[in-house]
Amino acid sequence: MASYLKESLRQALEAVEKRERAHQPEDLREPSPPRSPPPTGAVRPRGIPLTAPDHTPQPRVSAAPAAIPSAQTFAQDLPETSVQAPLAAASVDPRALDPRRASVSLRTERPNDSKLSPMAMAFERPVIAAPPPTRFRPIEPPNLERAGLEGSFVRGLILKYLLGQPGSTGRQVSQALAIHWQIARELLSELKESKLVVLKRSTATGDFRYELTQEGRGESYDLQKHSRYVGPAPVPLDQWLMSVHEQSIANEHPRMGDLYRAFQDLLVTDTLLHQLGPAMTSGKGLFLFGFPGNGKTSLAERMTRAFGTSVYIPHAILVEGHLIKIYDPMMHEPLGEEKKTLNSRERVDPRWVKCRRPTVVVGGELTMDALEIDFNAATGICEAPIQVKAACGTLVIDDFGRQRCDPATLLNRWIVPLEQRVDFLRLPDGRKVEVPFDPLLVFSTNLDPRDLCDEAFLRRIPYKVNVEDPSEENFRQLLHIQAELLGFEPDDEVFDHVIATHYKTVNRPFRNCHPRDLILQVQNQCMFRETPLTLTIAGFDEAASLYFTLL
Questions:
Q1: 178-180-181 Cα angle (round to 5)
Q2: CATH class held by domain 238-337+344-466
Q3: Distance CA 182, CA 169 (A)
Q4: With 0-12 CB in 10 A as exposed, 13-18 as middle and 19+ as buried, what is 412?
Q5: 423 falls in which pLDDT band (50, 70, 90)?
Q6: Are 197 and 188 contacting, i.e. CB atoms less than 8 angstroms apart?
Q7: How far is Cα 74 from Cα 333, in angstroms, rounded to an integer?
Q8: At 250, phi and psi to the nearest 5?
Q9: Which one has a higher pLDDT value, 142 or 121?
Q10: What's the longest Cα–Cα distance across the chain?
Q11: Closest CA to 360 of 398, 316, 309
Q12: Under CATH, to which class is 150-232 assigned?
């Protein structure tokens, strides 16, 4: 009996020690020495192993560093996407990657073909994973108090909705107005008691279909005289201000790995990346200037990728009784929300839309009116200005200096927002409201910034980045890349002729857009004449004679 108890005790202690080792990190675990049964009559105090551990130091085995993927491996991993105006090529130092902000996909397999294509050489970069999503996540409020709305306002939305959609169920009203089902049910019950709506019939799911009474229709017509808005309920101003603070682009500080990921479909020199990085980290804005055709707009449009992946944008906000629409399908790209959970306390508030960080680009069509609240007197609905729609993202003023308004007037409008990071908007009734100025402001211009603005404004935008012409080596590499992208076999002899005849002889500067534009013309020649896609000297000469006629 004593031996049986000892054996049971030994097995129990072994199980405890095994569980303790399982909770330790793998690199801190030591191999368990072989156990032998304790001598007869041995007494083991609690917490002491039955056999003495071997204190011989064990060598710690560390995994060999994984190899950075080859250029060809990375080229195979790239998503199929169009390359617009590639910039100068860059070689990436893997040591510059910040492991806290980006993870590198460490693939060591190499394809059988060891010869790297020019396309692969151009994209000799490690695969950078996307940054984590935003920390802000609005939860669906279960009542009006948590939603920050007045019951009379939401009842008005319900009446206007039923005027256009008679016979809708309570669930349909709840979904259309983006309010909790419990809120919709309570308000519909109040409207029924006020004899503004009636129950038409019940549904198989226990819901009811509602219609307006004669008095309810009259009330709806009166409401439409002030505002014809029918849609998701707005978010109060204080909740939107909190969301901008939590999701602000100023909270993000991109590192070199983030820039590699953002510009992975472009070719950018390390020098240019080191200039763009601090400017983007500051979050205050920058000037991109230089000759046309070198990819300034392409750079500006991709800067947002270096920041957090997604933000929540409200359909509309309620400011001093005025409803202002913010979500714009033309500027905001919605993302699929995560799988709905059965727990109502964790559902996302449907008044918000999960979108990619916005990138709003405006060019010569920009006017001063676009920077103010646009009030439509016919509908009673306000549209947010472009800087509000670009909050938590990037606002690109493309072709700066060619707008329909005077550059000095436009710049003066930005002085206070750039200095204090707040903006003042005038409501339709004349009152002013303070809102955050949160976008990363990027001016892209082919003109000299000194000819467009004075020293006071240049001081508020401390970063002025010159996007220079590509070198001959980079230009030749771009010819290889564009040829492969457009279905041609690169031909170095033809490229030598192009560079010597159409650039060096006439002293013409290289531009990053020229390889794409010239090879596109050669492709159009082949398609029109029904000939194979082949790069020829005659084809390039014909394309150059047309392309450079006025250049």
A1: 110
A2: alpha beta
A3: 13
A4: middle
A5: very high
A6: yes
A7: 27
A8: -70, -20
A9: 142
A10: 106
A11: 398
A12: mainly alpha
pLDDT tens digits for range 513-540: 999 999 999 999 999 999 999 999 999 9
- What is the secondary structure of 212-277 as a DSSP string? E-HHHHHHHHHHHHH----SSPPEEHHHHHHHHHHH-GGG----HHHHHHHTTTS---HHHHHHHH
Residue with tokens 């050669």: 522
Least confident among 1-15, 23-37, 226-240: 23-37
Q: Summarize pLDDT for 372-402 with one digit per residue, the tens.
A: 999 999 999 999 999 999 999 999 999 888 8
Cβ contacts of residue 247 below 8 Å, gap of 6+?
134, 136, 308, 311, 312, 392
At 135, list the tokens. Answer: 């920390």
Please compute, for residue 433, the number of CA atoms within 13 A of its CA located in the half-sphere on the CB side. Answer: 20
Res. 103 pLDDT band, cuts 50 70 90: very low
DSSP letters, 105-151, are -------S--PPPHHHHHT----BPPPP--S--PBPPSSHHHHT--H
- Segment 433-443 shows an average pLDDT of 92
What residues contact residue 227 under an 8 Å CB cut-off, 6+ apart? 323, 379, 380, 381
